[in-house]
Specification:
Blueprint: H1 2-11, H2 15-26, H3 34-61, H4 82-89, H5 92-95, E1 99-104, H6 110-123, E2 128-132, H7 133-146, H8 149-158, E3 161-167, H9 174-187, E4 192-197, H10 204-208, H11 211-221, E5 226-230, H12 235-242
Parallel strand pairs: 1-4, 1-5, 2-3, 3-4
Length: 243
């Protein structure tokens, strides 16, 4: 009977339940009531599905760093508001379809922090995409050439959270400017976005170029966004000193 039950669990793809029931059968010292056993098996299946979903979402996000909320250093000198960050880690800003702008000098941990927020979002079941901004624009130019541009932009639009890292390293040309405008317009008021940049927001206008489009983009992403300007010594230098 147990062998048949295990086989049926496997055929029904109840892998968490199958593993838990197998463990229970192999352990003589564990005695469950019927209610406890059912609760245990259901919880095991739920945990298994949650973990597999989180793995799929994390893999699809293509993060630059393997980062976690627990490892973020809450140092006042870095300009981090612990209470605000903890709200970010709950996914509240994603549900509210709001933006976060992370700025600061190179090496202060902006990309790691964005990745930590993104990893946490995956654990909450949100679809996340992490992009180096210049690489994304290069990919979109290629997509225009091969006819897959609309498909790629639609994929970006559907992400619950889009993380654009290293924004502003190069001024935008006309093609990239229009692509950026389309991405921001599609997501405005519908999805959450994090933009990471070494440049302060007051010079983003120059990076985008073409006043009318720059005004339209910045009106959508800057004025109602959460802003964090990270400060302090380069985290990379600190890590190198330790080693």
């Amino acid at each position: 009977m147990n062998a048949q039950t295990l086989e049926q669990m496997k055929q029904l793809r109840l892998f968490g339940m199958h593993r838990a029931f197998s463990t229970t059968l192999e352990t003589d010292s564990i005695n469950y009531t019927n209610d406890e056993l059912i609760a245990y098996l259901l919880q095991s299946e739920w945990d298994d599905r949650h973990n597999r979903k989180m793995e799929r979402l994390t893999k699809a996000a293509k993060f630059r760093y393997k980062a976690s909320a627990e490892e973020v250093l809450f140092d006042a000198a870095r300009g981090l508001d612990k209470n605000q960050l903890q709200r970010f880690f709950t996914g509240e800003f994603i549900r509210a379809k709001e933006n976060i702008l992370l700025t600061g000098s190179t090496g202060v941990g902006k990309s790691y922090l964005a990745s930590a927020i993104g990893h946490q979002a995956c654990s909450l079941g949100y679809k996340v995409r992490y992009c180096n901004t210049n690489k994304l624009f290069t990919e979109l130019k290629t997509a225009k050439a091969d006819g897959s541009y609309t498909k790629e932009v639609n994929k970006i639009e559907k992400q619950d959270l889009l993380i654009l890292d290293d924004f502003g390293l190069k001024p935008l040309d006309a093609t990239n400017r229009h692509a950026f405008m389309e991405i921001i317009e599609d997501r405005h008021g519908k999805r959450a976005t994090i933009i990471v940049s070494q440049l302060p927001t007051d010079v983003w206008h120059q990076v985008i170029g073409e006043q009318t489009i720059a005004d339209a983009i910045l009106d959508r992403i800057v004025h109602a966004a959460y802003r964090m300007n990270l400060k302090g010594e380069s985290m990379r230098k600190k890590m190198n000193k330790k080693h």
